[in-house]
Specification:
Elements lengths: L1 H4 L1 E8 L2 E8 L2 E8 L5 H12 L6 E7 L10 H13 L4 E7 L5 H15 L2 E7 L2 H20 L3
Parallel strand pairs: 3-4, 4-5, 5-6
Antiparallel strand pairs: 1-2, 2-3
Helix pairs in contact: 2-3, 3-4
Length: 152
Amino acid sequence: MLGSTGSLISKGVIEGYEFRTLMINGFHVHDITVIGPISLSTRIPLYLETLRDALPPYYFCIVDNIAGFENTISYDDIRQLDRILIDHGIRKFFGATITKDMGYAKIVKLAQANMDEIGLEGMVIEAPDRAAAEAFIFEKLQQAAAERDGTA
């Protein structure tokens, strides 16, 4: 559904990830599929690559890890990644991760707590499937468009 509503801006493959960036309603949405273990050393290049096509102050993303690759992200890693976002002009971050990992709720809680602490607006969620992740992102895109257009 995501691809049918947007136009392709870029796509690529880097260690651990396949990604594409789509233009939807004047915003860029990063659609990322995990293809290997997740760590800070693989996340930083992904952030830097997708930030090249970001439209600050917004960053919208879906991360599909339904395959269940190991995620070794720590709270300190989250802080470092959020700092990269802020350093690149991102002030509003909306992300949905598709996962069946029962422990991922802890990562979401840590990520949201850090966002709140450093003043990065937005929300991160875990989603059980692509439909739920896309529904979340589309809702946030509509809110952002209303804010941008002065109809909020």
